[in-house]
Amino acid sequence: MPAISFEFFPPKTDEQRNQLDHCVKALKARGPDYVSVTFGAGGSTLNYTEQTVQRLQQAHGLQVAPHLSCVGGTRQELGELLDRYRAIGCHRIVALRGDLPSGMATPGDFRYAVELVSFIRQHSGDHFHIEVAAYPETHPQAESALTDLRHFKQKIEAGANGAITQYFYNADAYFRFVDEAHRLGVDVPIVPGIMPIGNFSQLRRFSETCGAEIPRWIVRRMQALGDDAEAIRQLGIDIVASLGQRLLDGGAPGLHVYTLNRSKTALAILDRLQ
Ligand code: FAD
Fold first, then answer.
1. What digits encode the pLDDT tens for the residues 118-137?
2. Which structural domain range is residue 68 located in?
3. For residue 49, is it within any domain?
C-alpha cells in the first residue's frame, strides 16, 4: 500500500479553522500515514502552526508532522519548539530552510536546511523521523541540478529519513531525480508531492517562484477553458490523477498531497487512483 500524507496550512481565522476541520474530516477517512502543517519562515505563523498541530492531534487523532523552517530562527527558539513538539507527542518533523519574507533582515542561526537537520539530531537524538524537501525540477536558487542534488544528499547524510518533493507535473523529472539520487547512494524514500489544480492562474504565479514548471500543453489546455472553473477543476483532476497513477506505477513509495485545506479535489484525485 503506498503511503498517503496530506499537507495543510495553519488557519488564522475562525472561518479558515472551520474550513480546515471540514477538510480534515473528509480526508481522514482515507487513512493517511500522517498529515503535515506548514510553517512561515521568520516566525510569522509560528504560533498558528503549533496550535494547528495540537488541534489535529487532539481533536482529530492524527499523527502530525510540523514543518520547521530554520531561516530567521535561533538555535534556542528552534530547540524550544522541538521540545514542545516532543512533549505533545510528535514523532515526525519536516525540516526546511524556508524563505525569508521580503524586507526581513535577520537571517538567524542557520543558512541551509542541512544545518537544521544536524541540529535536530544533536538536540533531540533519534526522537524525530525527519523529512526534507527535494526538487525534481531543481531548486530555483541552485547553481545547477547536480549541486542541488549534492546538497540534497547532504541533508540525508546529516540524518534525514526521507524526502518529500516540490510538486511537479512532469513525471520524468521525478524518475530521473530518484535514479540520480540512488546513483549517489541516497536510499531513503523520496515521496512525490502532488498539487491539485484549483485556481489555475494562482498556481501559475506561485509556480514561477517555487521551482515547479507547468508544461505548455497544460497551460494551453487550461487557457482554452477560459473562466469555466468547473471545467478547469475537472481537467486538473484528470491531469493530476494520471500523474499520481504514473508515479505509483513507476515505483513511487507514496504520495504527499498539497491540499491547500480543501478536500473535494484531493478526494476526486485519490478516487481515481488504483
Ligand atoms: P535547502 O535544502 O537549504 O536548499 C536551499 C537552496 O540552497 C538550494 O538551492 C540548495 O541547492 C542550496 N544549498 C543547500 N545547501 C547548500 C550549501 N551547503 N551551500 C550552498 N548552497 C546550498 N517553506 C516554508 O517557509 N514553510 C514550509 O512549511 C514549507 N514547506 C515545504 C514543504 C515541502 C515538501 C517543500 C518541497 C518545500 C517547502 N517549503 C516551505 C519551501 C522551502 O522552504 C523553499 O523551497 C526554500 O527555498 C528551500 O528550502 P529547503 O529546505 O529545500 O532548503
1. 999 999 999 999 999 999 99
2. 3-199+233-272
3. yes
